[in-house]
């Protein structure tokens, strides 16, 4: 008797699990993507350090910042933009005074994702990120957290505001006043996008930029009424810019293909013409000795006047 309600309980639990698992796992996926949206795509062609010092956000003071910069420059420069993004998110997390433990855990997860792939650079940087950087933040983040408070006008985010290269219609500068508590993350999104679009086509980077900025907007809950609409507007502009670029690239490619086909075909015709001409002329040369006589003969036969002139 008792086993029946127990069983229904279990099946209800199972059903709930079934219903919630996909949500949880898709949330996980989304989250993984968002903490490090570009995952180093910006630097795949470069060996040099990708981030200038003034845009570097790792480290809480001059010394730790210099130190982390030199380690990354030395060991994994092509991951610099992605690692720097983890630090940017962490800065804004502190600035908004979200629970410190959550900010720190997100940071460690972010850098773990960035150094996940089994490349030489990841392998070199992973131990530093996993041990030194995470520990430094855990033990050294106390004062940084204490002194970060975006709600207090006397401690602003104080970062360089970066805009998107070559897409003035994106209105990116506007985002900083619409999402004032995500300034550092938004600047890092722009840096990543600019690096990405310097080595890839814009359409390759546009979707990542939108995920990056929309994730940033999700964190600025205090300004959700202004921030998300502004980010959506910017995203629309970037995506339509990117599809215009793609369309013009396609037109150009089509033009090049048509031009090449035409060139090949006309070269082919020229070749055939030359071939038949050279064949014809050698035949003519062969027949040349008879030809003259023959023509004169035939001319005579055709035109009786010629015969009379003799
Ligand atoms: C941050 O600053 C605001 C405004 O000055 C203040 O009300 C708030 O208590 C501060 N938060 C913390 C955690 O210090
Ligand atoms: C972010 O930048 C905007 C635009 O310059 C500024 O008004 C805002 O105060 C900044 N946010 C913080 C937290 O400093
Ligand atoms: C913004 O957040 C507040 C409180 O979290 C919520 O009540 C409001 O509906 C949100 N606005 C938008 C546009 O999402």
Automatic annotation (TrEMBL):
Q: Which SUPFAM superfamilies does the record associate with it?
A: Phospholipase A2, PLA2 (SSF48619)
Q: Does the keyword Transmembrane helix apply?
A: yes
Keywords linked to the UniProt accession: Membrane, Signal, Transmembrane, Transmembrane helix
The protein's name in its UniProt record: Uncharacterized protein
Q: Any signal peptide, and if so, which residues?
A: 1-26
GO biological process: one example = arachidonate secretion
Q: Which GO terms describe its molecular function?
A: phospholipase A2 activity
Q: Which InterPro entries would you find in this protein's record?
A: PLA2-like (IPR053322), PLipase_A2_dom_sf (IPR036444)
Q: Which residues cross the membrane?
A: 254-275
